[in-house]
Design goal:
It comes from Cladocopium goreaui. By secondary structure, the protein is mainly alpha-helical. Helices cover 91% and strands 0% of the residues.
């Protein structure tokens, strides 16, 4: 191969390695972006649950606006994560193991995103339920603390506080129920991940065995080719020896023929002179 051809091949190899590194870098960036988006969704979920727990008649309007803004932020993070997650499938690895690892990583990110979306929706539903219960509570005309004390209305105030506490307790119960359901879903998802990992290990073991058998076959073919090459070399050596012996025999015959021809010429010349 010429120097120019070697340079071209080296440049092509370097370009291929560069594209591979670029693809790995993009894959890592996309994966980190999706993970950060899931964290933002979880933060929005926690804020909505907090507002549901602290919901009170005097703060319901402000809490509603805050929850709607938080929900909008969470939904925006969901859309961004979905778009970036779709790009991961276009950046496959070069080896079987790398492709398998990326597939598992993409599956895990997708499951985390799905869980985050579900938790965000559940937290907003809990807030709406708490808001609905608060709206259904009987309302009384608020009075100044001095008037309450003067008119002996302290038990009514305590009743309102107790109703608010009951409302918060119900919201907390809903949240805890949702958390228990999430934990159960997480356990199920973890079991599925373990089964997927076991299947991946089995596939990797099978792939390794196939590669080992292929290497054994290649090694056997190489040994057979080596033996055939040795036999061919031996046959060529024998043929070369036979050819040299045949050449020597022909040379001797030619020399003998030349000697006989000279003798014959002398005999003819001698008889002609007589």
């Amino acid at each position: 191969m010429s120097y120019a051809g070697q340079a071209s091949a080296s440049a092509a190899s370097a370009s291929s390695r560069s594209r591979s590194r670029d693809g790995d870098s993009v894959y890592v960036q996309d994966s980190m972006f999706v993970s950060e988006a899931v964290k933002r969704i979880q933060q929005c979920t926690a804020e909505i649950r907090k507002e549901a727990n602290l919901l009170a008649p005097s703060t319901s309007a402000a809490a509603r606006k805050k929850v709607e803004a938080t929900l909008h932020t969470g939904n925006q993070a969901v859309q961004d994560a979905k778009r970036r997650l779709e790009k991961l499938s276009y950046n496959g690895g070069d080896t079987f193991g790398e492709q398998r690892n990326r597939s598992l990583m993409q599956q895990k990110l997708s499951e985390n995103l799905t869980k985050g979306i579900r938790d965000l929706q559940v937290s907003f539903q809990v807030f709406e339920q708490a808001e609905k219960r608060l709206a259904e509570m009987p309302t009384t005309t608020p009075q100044r603390p001095t008037e309450d004390l003067e008119m002996g209305s302290l038990p009514a105030g305590q009743g309102r506080l107790q109703a608010t506490a009951d409302l918060v307790s119900e919201a907390e119960l809903d949240v805890h129920t949702a958390i228990v359901e999430e934990y159960a879903q997480d356990i199920s998802t973890l079991a599925q991940d373990v089964r997927g990992l076991q299947q991946a290990m089995a596939d990797l073991s099978f792939h390794t065995k196939v590669q080992g058998d292929l290497l054994d076959s290649i090694e056997g073919d190489f040994l057979s080719s080596t033996q055939n090459t040795a036999n061919a070399s031996e046959q060529l050596t024998q043929a070369s020896h036979s050819q040299r012996r045949g050449s020597k025999f022909i040379y001797w015959l030619l020399l003998l023929a030349a000697v006989l021809a000279v003798i014959l010429i002398f005999v003819v010349v001698y008889r002609s002179s007589q």
